[in-house]
Amino acid sequence: MRLHGTLYEITDITSFVRQYVTNRSQPSADSMSAVSNARVNLNLPLNRSNQAGRFPPSVAESITDGSGRFELDVSMSSGASIFLSASVQAEDSERTGHEQHPGCWYRSSPFALGSIDRIQQDIYIARIAVPREAGFSQAQLAAALAETQKEVADLEWIKGRIRSDGITLSCGGKGAKASGRLMLNPHRSDDLSKSLDHSVEDFHLELPGPAWLVGLVISKDAVEASLRTGLADLAGEISRQLKLSAINLFSARLQPSDPAALDRVVSEATLSFSRLHYEAIPVAGPSKASRTIVGEACFGFPGSIGTE
Q: When comparing pLDDT for 261 and 30, which is higher?
C-alpha cells in the first residue's frame, strides 16, 4: 500500500478555513503553497515509542519534491496503529538557525491503516510565529514562582531566570537548598495534548545536617521527587501559556464573527511547535538582558486521518 499526497503551507487562513473547514471543499490554490524538501513520516504512537523527547520510531519516510508531493510505502498490517508527521529537515534546521531539537510542522492523531478510505492524503499547515510580546517572559516566570512559594509551606525563597540555555532555578527553606536548569523542547509524539517536553539538567540538592541524621528524619529521594514534580508543573504552565498565545494569534488572523465557528476550527486542527528559543531583550544600562521564551506554532489540517 502506498500513501501519497502533497504538503501545503496555508498562505490565506481566512480563505482556507472558509473553503476547507466550513464548506468541506478543496481549498483554492491561491490560499496555499506547496512545501518542498520537507520530511513526512509514518511513526509508531507514543506507547510503542522510545522515551519522551526523542523522535518516535518511523516505519516509512518521504521527502517532499519541488511540488510538495510525498509518497509513503506502507508494509504493515491493516490493523497497525500509526500517526503521520511532517517536519523541517535537519540540515535546513541548522541553516536557518532553528534549535538543536526541532519539532514538527504537523502531527496527526493515531489511526489504523485499515481506517484509511483513500490513499491520497494532503496535509495543510499554518505557521504562526509567537513574538516576544506574546511569549513567556521573565515577569511571568517571576509571577509563577511567587505563586509556588505561597503554596509550599516550607519554601522560604525561590528564584529563576530565563537564559539562552534554559531556565535556571534555585530555592531554599529550613536549611535546605536546591538548584537546577529546566530545558524545554517541542513535543513530537502522537500525544496531541502535549506541546512541549521538558528535562531537568544539573540538578543539585543539599539538606541540612549530617547525612546519617537526614536519612533518619527525611527521605532525600522524596524531597527530590517533590521538587521535580514542581518543575514539571512549571513546564506545564509555560506550555499552556505558549499554546494559548498561539491560539489567540491564530484567532486574530481569522477574525470570525461567530465564536463557535472559531472553536470548531481550532478543535479540528492539531497544534505543534516547530521550534522554540529564548530571545534576549536588550536593556539600557548595566542590567543583565532579560529573555522571553518564543517560537513557531503550527496548526495542521486534518487533525484526524481515516474513517474512525
A: 30
